[in-house]
Design a protein that fits this description.
Helices cover 61% and strands 2% of the residues. By secondary structure, it is mostly helical. Belongs to the RRN3 family.
Length: 523
């Protein structure tokens, strides 16, 4: 653009004015050691008041000489990548996307930088955060533009992936690195998780990795900062069992649960909401369950369950994504139970995972109301004979004493059976009491309770007491003699493999937790 001398001298330069030569000429000068125009371009590109027309003009020039923009010009490229293109006019967005396409095609050295630029916009820049009643951050007046901004980010990412087939290989580390700290606001985490899941739709090769990243971050919240919530769960569980309630102690419809007071719980609640909405959207097409898509997602989520959820002790909420998915179709619930059953049986699996599988199996059977009683009985018909076979192999041997380390999977399986019967005995007995009693009598629970391994001594007291009350009511097993004898015995449960030394008395030697009791997050 030419400028008349009188205009230049008499008035301040306008924001639309450009100084220096073209980008191509500037790069040529730079090769000869003249950096003046090069620095001038960087300065003008960094102008916070840069106009749409200027951005378009610059980008057009950069596109024409993109093959000249090698590694030596990375400072200039980084300035261009910081241009405020998001939320601008459609002409600016289209020109910027065209520039990105040309850049990654001609100079793959800048692929990571382009990806980082896009991903850095997956969370809002400004968010209102309150501590108490005090607003401690900038306003969130840009929030209404976020959907459009995110759409443009995904448009850019899809374009890059189209021009560079290896994009997915470089993208995952950046997605992980850019994940906001879990102490960030709920809105920040919500946006980022939503955008990650959106990426998994059009880059399906990354779905498992993205799910693992999200679920791992959620588990960090679930187990590290919700210890008080876990204690509350146990207190409510004990009260629930003692009152012989069939339902979860917390009702999600109660108005006093309208607000999550715990800030960590609020963040986790928000992230869980996004994940569950994603599961629903993937599985349901036009209001109907898409079986093939559901099965594929089930396989991915089950893989994540085995990898990160099952080995995580005392998580309160994250595992409910499997509970929710299994509620869509009975076949999924039965497949999940079968998976847990196989893991419990597998002698090559670490005992801690076998015990976790038994705990999940019992909690799922007890709490999943979408499971028909026929499925519950089918699972009991697997678990109970397995317990009898285990007793056959141990009861008369040298290891026939109460030792959690030696018999952990057995004890956890016993507790799973007891716990299931606490919550499901009414369903088994209703309709035909006589037939139901015959079924329960056929389980031969008395032999399990009376065996030398003494499972009642190891199970959680709340479970033991409730199981004893129910089995006495229907004259199935008389547990109280054993319970009283265990209570009189001052020696603690043996926890060393030799059976020779003792430890302090532990009311929860199995380190029990019930993964589906109860769900405390409001959404």
């Amino acid at each position: 653009m030419e400028i008349e001398d009188r205009d230049f001298l008499s008035t301040p330069p306008k924001k639309t004015v450009r100084f220096g030569g073209t980008v191509s000429n500037t790069l040529a000068k730079l090769q000869k050691g003249d950096t003046s125009d090069y620095e001038l371009i960087k300065h003008q590109l960094s102008d916070p008041d840069i106009k749409d027309a200027q951005i378009i003009s610059w980008l057009h020039e950069f596109r024409t000489c993109v093959t000249q923009l090698g590694k030596d010009h990375e400072q200039l490229i980084y300035v261009v990548l910081k241009l405020p293109w998001l939320g601008r006019s459609q002409a600016v967005v289209e020109e910027y996307l065209a520039f990105l396409s040309n850049l990654v095609s001609a100079q793959t050295v800048y692929l990571r930088a382009c990806l980082r630029m896009v991903i850095s916009n997956f969370a809002p820049k400004r968010i209102r955060i309150q501590e108490g009643n005090v607003d401690i951050s900038d306003s969130d007046d840009e929030d209404e533009n976020l959907p459009r901004t995110f759409d443009q980010c995904h448009q850019a990412l899809q374009l890059i992936a189209r021009y560079v087939p290896s994009t997915s290989r470089f993208l995952m580390p950046i997605l992980s690195d850019k994940f906001p700290f879990v102490q960030k606001s709920s809105r920040t985490l919500e946006c980022y998780v939503h955008n990650l899941l959106r990426v998994s739709v059009y880059i399906p090769d990354l779905r498992r990795d993205i799910l693992e990243l999200i679920i791992s971050k959620m588990l960090t919240l679930d187990v590290s900062d919700l210890c008080l919530v876990t204690v509350l769960i146990y207190l409510q569980l004990c009260r629930c069992l003692m009152d012989e309630e069939e339902d979860s102690p917390l009702d999600s419809s109660r108005p006093d649960r309208a607000v999550m007071v715990h800030p960590v719980a609020e963040r986790l609640d928000t992230m869980m909401t996004v994940l569950l909405a994603y599961i629903k959207d993937i599985c349901h097409v036009n209001g109907s369950l898409d079986i093939e898509k559901t099965k594929a997602l089930y396989r991915d989520l089950l893989s994540m369950f085995d990898k990160v959820v099952l080995p995580t002790h005392a998580s309160c909420h994250v595992q409910y994504y499997m509970f929710y998915l299994c509620s869509f179709r009975l076949g999924l619930a039965e497949a999940f139970l079968d998976h847990l059953w196989k893991m419990l049986q597998a002698p090559n699996q670490p005992p801690v995972l076998r015990q976790a599988a038994a705990g999940y199996m019992g909690s799922f059977m007890a709490r999943a109301k979408f499971l028909p009683v026929s499925t519950v009985k089918a699972c009991l018909d697997l678990l109970v004979p397995w317990l009898h076979l285990y007793i056959n192999s141990q009861d008369s041997g040298s290891k026939a004493f109460c030792d959690v380390n030696l018999h952990g999977p057995f004890y956890t399986a016993c507790q799973a059976v007891f716990y299931t019967l606490i919550f499901r005995h009414n369903a088994i007995l209703e309709g035909n009491m006589k037939k139901g009693l015959v079924y329960l009598q056929g389980l031969n629970l008395e032999r399990i309770v009376m065996c030398q391994l003494n499972p009642l001594r190891v199970c959680l007291p709340a479970v033991t007491n409730m199981f004893a009350a129910i089995t006495r009511k229907y004259q199935l097993v008389f547990c109280y003699t054993i319970i009283e004898r265990n209570n009189r015995n001052l020696l603690p449960v043996v926890s060393c493999s030799t059976g020779g030394s003792s430890v302090s008395t532990n009311t929860n030697p199995l380190d029990t937790f019930f993964p589906f009791d109860p769900y405390l997050l409001k959404r």
